[in-house]
Amino acid sequence: MKSSGRWLPGARLLTLLPFALLAAGCGSKQDALRPDSPPAHGIATIWWIMLGGSVVGLGVIVAILVAAWFKRGVEGADRPGTITVIALGIVTPILVLAALFAYSDIFLIRGTSPPAAAAATNDLDVRVISHQFWWEVRYPGSSVVTANEIHIPVRTHVIVSVHSDDVIHSFWVPQLNRKIDVFPDQVNRVELYADKPGRYRGQCAEFCGLQHAHMGFYVFADPPARFARWLRAQARPAKRFNALFDDKCSSCHAIQGTPAHSHVGPDLTHVGSRTSLAALTIPNTPAHLAEWLRNPQQVKPGSLMPDLNLTSAQVRQLTRYLESLK
Ligand code: CUA
Questions:
Q1: 175 vs 299: CA distance, rounded Å
Q2: What is the DSSP string of 212-247?
């Protein structure tokens, strides 16, 4: 009795865990039930339809169970006939599932897929390449390469082509569209269209290794003029060269306008203009950047950023340099 007394409060807490997680999820900024694009509205609508249908179905089953409970042991009580069993157990599920299939295939899948033909001239193409555990972002037709923060013009059809540099990942911005698998040997496409300006959180949705959960990204939907200004600024090469960076970091990172041009890790030409680091693991502040440079495996264990054994003076110098790259 003593041990069960100790165990029970823990068990009660465990039973509450799914509800706590659900509540936490509902309060976060990455929420498929707060859609901000036509495809995401369609996905949220079918989610609510399925929830409503499930509640009705569960209600019917509970009602039958309760009726059976009250009739237990009653001599001569009615037993359901074969027709009732076939109607409720076979025909009803077939009709419900067929209706859901037709609705999702006719209205939803087509509405959430990018057009099969070449994009219209006023559409924007963005290329996203996934890596363990971050996102490389390129804008065809310009030299812009960035990481983990995708800027798009608001109320514009943006066709995102995704492929992977290593394992399978999944690109997902819940408020803007459905998930799309990211394969190493195939390019997949998904459309992002934001109804209103804002910052939308995205996440890798396919387990891809130790830091899968820290493989997030932001989509910034900006007014078109602001987006154009951002793109022009990002296309400019860096104004300054840093010998320490070139010595320690250039074998993995690029800074356009300097001899560093490796794309093993994120392009850092304008890293100072980003709001986050390490695929949204930490905010982009001098203190967090210094900690990341000093001890990357403590900040993001399993990431491919190695410990460079930098001295405090070197960390300070690199932090100042990188934060100046706006
Ligand atoms: Cu990439 Cu999970």
A1: 28
A2: GGG-EEEEEEE-HHHHHHHHHHHHSPPS---HHHHH
Cα 147 to middle of ligand 1, angstroms: 15
- The Å distance, Cα 211 to ligand 1 centre, comes to 7
CATH number of the domain located at residue range(s) 122-232 in this protein: 2.60.40.420
Domain ranges of the chain: 1-25, 38-112, 122-232, 243-323
The token duo for 164 is 């992977």
Q: Name all residues whose Cβ lies below 6 A of ligand 1.
A: 130, 133, 169, 204, 206-208, 212, 215
User: Hey, what are 128's tokens?
Assistant: 């996203």
Please report, in tens digits, the pLDDT of each residue of the chain (326 residues total). 334 444 444 445 445 544 444 444 444 478 999 999 999 999 999 899 999 989 998 998 999 899 888 888 777 766 777 888 888 889 988 998 898 888 888 878 877 887 665 555 568 999 999 999 999 999 999 999 999 999 999 999 999 999 999 999 999 999 999 999 999 999 999 999 999 999 999 999 999 999 999 999 999 999 999 999 999 999 999 988 999 999 999 999 999 999 999 999 999 999 999 999 999 999 999 999 999 999 999 999 999 999 999 999 999 999 999 999 99
Task: Kindly provide the residue ranges of all beta strands, DSSP E only, lying in 62-133, ordered along the sequence.
Answer: 124-131
Which CATH architecture group holds 243-323?
Answer: Orthogonal Bundle (1.10)
Reduce the DSSP state of residue 199 to 3 states and report it: strand
